[in-house]
């Protein structure tokens, strides 16, 4: 694991209550995670998530993952937990607009203390969002608590890559992304096992670098005006953010950061 200082839950809420969160949705789509629909489908298939199941999405953001699961995997019901009011309200409206409000419930709470009942969910779900949670050990403990024996913890997340990242590189990356720390594939595997889960999948999707290329290409060739509008046409800020994205692109191609995919079975 690599960590930095000065980042907490309020830092993340600041991102997704404001323009930066809107900018991420502009370039990554409603499913604000690497790989979008294809990534979600791969994770659901590897975990065997299907008709009639019930799940909990920790760090659900606007609920796009839950809507995907209800619509394309015929999941019976989902409960989403997120601490940022803007995205929760947006998610509730989108679920209502798509006729899913009866199957999807949002909880405006810290995922480390969801208050949901133990051992009831068929699966716990997350997509490229647990990187924002400071206490990852407690997060994995909460995920394992929520899922029933024989159920699944299934998630993707931004992780350390196979090539060592320097402290200075990690600090710059973490501060830009508002991550207090970033876990490794092996680190998540150990946390899952320590919480009574048998790990079936713990792998690098190898999708990080090509998707960062895509996002930068879109911003530079098609979405420049749209992005500027979101940040109040602040050209200096646009250039600064572009520089940090380019730095992240370098880290991705150097295999110093990656997207990890995990499926674990609760014993």
For this entry, give a set of tags.
globular; seven-stranded mixed β-sheet; 267 residues; two-stranded antiparallel ribbon; 11 helices; single chain; alpha/beta; Rossmann fold
Describe it for me?
This protein has eleven helices and nine strands. The chain has one domain (2-266): Vaccinia Virus protein VP39 (Rossmann fold, 3-Layer(aba) Sandwich). The strands form two sheets. A seven-stranded mixed beta sheet has the order 4-3-2-5-6-9-8, with helices on both faces. Strands 1-7 form a two-stranded antiparallel sheet. It is α/β, with parallel strands linked by helices and 267 residues long. The two termini are 26 Å apart. α3 crosses α4. The radius of gyration is 18 Å and the shape is globular.
Task: Please outline the helices and strands.
Blueprint: E1 2-3, H1 9-16, H2 19-28, H3 36-47, E2 54-58, H4 64-72, E3 77-82, H5 85-97, E4 104-108, E5 121-127, H6 136-146, E6 147-160, H7 167-177, E7 181-182, H8 185-194, E8 197-204, H9 208-221, H10 224-230, H11 235-253, E9 257-266
Parallel strand pairs: 2-3, 2-5, 3-4, 5-6
Antiparallel strand pairs: 1-7, 6-9, 8-9
